[in-house]
Every structure is written in C-alpha cells, then in structure tokens.
Amino acid sequence: MEPDRRRQVRHPVKISATLVAGHGLDRMAVAITDISDAGAGLAFRPSSPLHGEIYMLIPDNTLQPCRLVWHQDGRFGLSFL
To answer: What are the tens digits of pLDDT across the range 28-41?
Structure first.
C-alpha cells in the first residue's frame, strides 16, 4: 500500500454534496467520505469525465474550488484551492 501523502489528517464523515463542473453546466451528486482543511475524499459514479474547473457545493452553500488529485473505482480525492 502506498504511504499517505496528505498534508493534513482527514476525518471520516458522511455528507451529501454537489460537484459543479463544466462552467456550472454539469452537476453531480456526491458523498463526501472524509474531509480536512486541505481536501476531501468522495464516492460517486460520474456521468461524464471530470476536467477543467471543479467546485464542490457543500450543504452550508459554500462553493469550494478544488482540483482532482486521484481517482480509483468510484472514489475520488480532491485538493481544495
């Protein structure tokens, strides 16, 4: 198993959120599985490839810019910008 290279410890959570991509035209429901101040782990099956600017809309109506760091089998890692 590859060592964890995260800058901060992520805390397990179960939060529903929305990924916004494609200049706001693509929206995907996601489950946040873990989170820190620097990034988050997500579980979902994208209907289209993730590319370009990505934002995560979380339940308190915060729109967080982020970038895709890794993905594997329906799990994704995002770094907050």
So the answer is: 899 999 999 999 99
Q: Are the C-beta atoms of residues 56 and 19 closer than 8 Å to each other?
A: yes
Cα–Cα distances in angstroms (integers) from residue 77 to residues 4, 32, in the given order:
12, 10
Written as one letter, the residue type at 69 is: V
Q: Which two tokens stand for residue 47?
A: 């209907």
pLDDT score of 54: 92
- Token reading at 68: 């895709």
CA 30 to each of CA 7, 15, 24, 27: distance values in angstroms, whole numbers, following the listed order? 23, 8, 16, 10
Cα–Cα dist 8/29, whole Å:
25
pLDDT band at 42 (very low <50, low <70, confident <90, very high): very high
C-beta atoms surrounding 50 within 10 Å: 16
Number of helices followed by number of strands (H, E) in the chain: 0, 6
